[in-house]
GTP cyclohydrolase 1
Amino acid sequence: MAISESEVIVGSLQEPMTALSLDKPALAETAIAVDADGDVAGINSPGDRGTFLAARVADREKQLAANIRSILKNVGEDPTREGLLKTPERYARAMLFFTKGYDESAWNLAKDAIFNVDHSEMVLVRDIEVFSMCEHHLIPFMGKVHIAYMPSGRVLGLSKLARIAEVYARRLQVQERLTQQIAQAVDDILKPQGVVVVIESAHMCMVMRGIQKTSSMTTTACRTGIFKKNKDVEEQFQFLLKLRQSS
């Protein structure tokens, strides 16, 4: 699956990637801080932490539901009619699930599944399904993520690559940044020789509204380390991606 010049290639950007925004949940509604590992400042007991987080979710649901009732009124609907009575609460729970990645940490998910190895062959997990929300329109985009890396003494449990993709997909996103965040998370966790991430997705903001092109797909890629420097390694990655398609 070659990347054409017309596709967005994040890995070609010259600006260095930073990890500052990767795992910082937005918690403006509370003065109690939740860090990148999901720990709550001043709360040491898992039971107390669970109680705090459950209360915070309930408060978020209540505020979101009130806002959705206002939206329903402003689009000309009656939020008190039978079919919409519970819609604000349902939507609030759905939106919190769609954005649950703000309260999750890639490192926290991966730290217990890092293993020492004595090989440096490419690891590729392809066709990881992801669902995310476009931050411009709050409309879904969905597709597949392909993640590959060249180990440098350590590998990650295979399911954790999918979980890392999920952490960043379950936030308000643009596809370019999502691609970059997944690549940098794997790079930060494993310190491999290099990482490459490719995402192919369909954006409902291009299907349901705007230009209404139902078959358009967007491909983004981000490369680090050896995948940017070594043409042979990049070609091996492209070959492995094509292998299943041609079989």
